[in-house]
Design goal:
Blueprint: E1 14-15, H1 29-36, E2 39-43, E3 49-53, H2 56-64, E4 68-69, H3 104-113, H4 118-142, E5 146-147, H5 148-153, H6 155-165, H7 172-183, H8 189-212, H9 219-224, H10 231-262, H11 264-271, H12 277-288, E6 295-299, E7 303-305, E8 308-310, E9 316-318, H13 320-323, H14 358-375, E10 380-381, E11 403-405
Helix pairs in contact: 4-6, 4-14, 6-10, 7-8, 7-10, 8-10, 10-12, 10-14, 12-14
The protein binds protoporphyrin IX containing FE.
Protoporphyrin IX containing FE binds near residues 70, 97, 248, 295 and 347.
Length: about 400
């Protein structure tokens, strides 16, 4: 008798696709994976098997579910740097709440939440405008061409986070270098660990000085007055805010300008006032989703989701760029359409770890884009777009240099 037909083998688990074929689009294989299932097997760089979430609804469900742990002891990342990653497989560094679960996470997050209210961010807006204007004036005075990253997209958020935290901006060369090393996949694990140690030593010194001086101002000084926090925790919170606070926004600003320059019809809708800057910012956040490799989680018990059972301890990567291009949530998702309602995107994550700096990042983008294009209406790339070096080698996608003229 003929042999019964075997059901087809499930597709071989694949590594995370990372090769982009277009500057603003995530690797195209991600869409194929999502069509297969919102949750597929993923092979991690060390060969072990875990899961990849590419569907919007499943991504949101994982991020909202307290059964998925964010503790660094269990975290595994789908794109490895050379050597053993110093941040994973070990308990969270003091203050690094992004690597903690409740109740430790809740305790630290509450300490920060008061400083990051929408109201406080609004009260920062005049300072952001002044910083933006000062850099645009300097760019105009020096004349074309300029590097939009070095002259604008990096210094603006660096200055803003320095003012918010009370970190001296004169020290930027060191902390910018350490943050860049932390987030660069080309840096070895040893280099990343040493950048972390230096950043921590620098912030510890600032916190200790803040504890001694009643005149110190800013968020770090406020935290330094909180007797329930250790110096190590405040320094760690400071290191996390300082590094996450400038590198990410710099990436969003530079890539956002580049995307608008490459989509002149969308840029027109911003500069003509047809679409308000808030909506443009939201759509750029969705379209660009700079956390390009997603965020790691681990189920602390068996969980059934999208028809699959994830076992306790298995590695999960929530691919934010794929979720934000899910046609089930955002029609025609690969089109930059600044007029769409992009709210609900996952560029800032979701759930208890959702980005605490999101209102600050939004305010910076909302102020910076219109001001830049109003000052330089003829702004355009000074090199062919294909020659703009993009940050595929960074945890956060961005632009290394963006030569512009006007
Ligand atoms: C968390 C994205 C700007 C501070 C996150 C997460 C994402 C994200 C996706 C969630 C990580 C996870 O769930 O594991 C972004 C993007 C930014 C941005 C796209 C810019 C456009 C900022 C800024 C700050 C900041 C300006 C600080 C001022 C933080 C902190 C966390 C976080 C402290 C951890 C929160 C927690 O674990 O409770 N961010 N971020 N981010 N972000 Fe941002």
């Amino acid at each position: 008798p003929p042999e019964p037909r075997r059901p087809p083998d499930p597709p071989e688990p694949r590594e995370l696709p990372v090769r982009r074929t277009a500057p603003f689009d995530p690797p195209p294989e991600l869409a194929a994976l999502r069509e297969e299932s919102p949750l597929t097997r993923l092979r991690y760089p060390d060969g072990h098997l875990g899961w990849l979430v590419t569907g919007y609804a499943t991504a949101r469900a994982v991020l909202a579910d307290p059964r998925f742990s964010a503790r660094s002891e269990f975290k595994r990342v789908p794109v490895a740097r050379p050597g053993t990653d110093p941040f994973y497989g070990a308990p969270a560094l003091p203050g690094w709440l992004v690597d903690m679960d409740a109740p430790e996470h809740t305790r630290l997050r509450r300490r920060l939440a008061g400083a990051f209210t929408a109201h406080r961010m609004r009260s920062l807006e005049p300072r952001i405008s002044a910083i933006v204007d000062r850099h645009l004036t300097a760019m105009a005075r020096r004349g074309a061409p300029a590097d939009l990253v070095a002259d604008f997209a990096l210094p603006v958020p660096s200055l803003v986070i320095c003012e918010l935290l009370g970190v001296p901006y004169e020290d930027r060369a060191d902390f910018q270098r350490h943050s860049a090393t932390l987030f660069s996949l080309d840096a070895s694990a040893d280099q990343a660990a040493s950048a972390m140690r230096e950043l921590d030593a620098y912030l510890t010194d600032l916190v200790l000085r803040g504890r001694r001086s009643a005149a110190a101002e800013g968020l770090l000084a406020d935290l330094a007055g909180d007797a329930d926090l250790t110096v190590g925790e405040i320094a760690g919170l400071g290191a996390l805010l300082l590094s996450a606070g400038h590198e990410t926004t710099a990436g969003s600003l530079s890539l956002g300008v580049f995307a608008l320059l490459c989509h002149p019809a969308q840029l027109d809708r911003l500069t003509s006032g047809a679409v308000p800057p808030e909506a443009v910012v939201e759509e750029l956040l969705r379209y660009l989703t700079i956390f390009q490799f997603g965020v790691p989680r681990t189920p602390s018990q068996d969980v059934t989701l999208a028809g699959r059972t994830l076992r306790a301890g298995e590695s999960v990567t929530v691919c934010l760029p794929a979720a934000n291009r899910d046609p089930g949530r955002f029609p025609d998702p690969d089109r930059l359409d600044v007029g769409r309602r992009a709210t609900g995107h996952l560029a800032f994550g979701h759930g208890v770890h959702q980005c605490i700096g999101q209102n600050l990042a939004r305010a910076e983008m909302r102020i910076a884009f219109p001001a830049l294009f109003a000052r330089f209406p003829g702004l355009r790339p000074a090199v062919p777009p294909a020659e703009v070096p993009l940050g595929g080698d960074m945890g956060f996608y961005g632009v290394h240099r963006l030569p512009v003229t006007w």
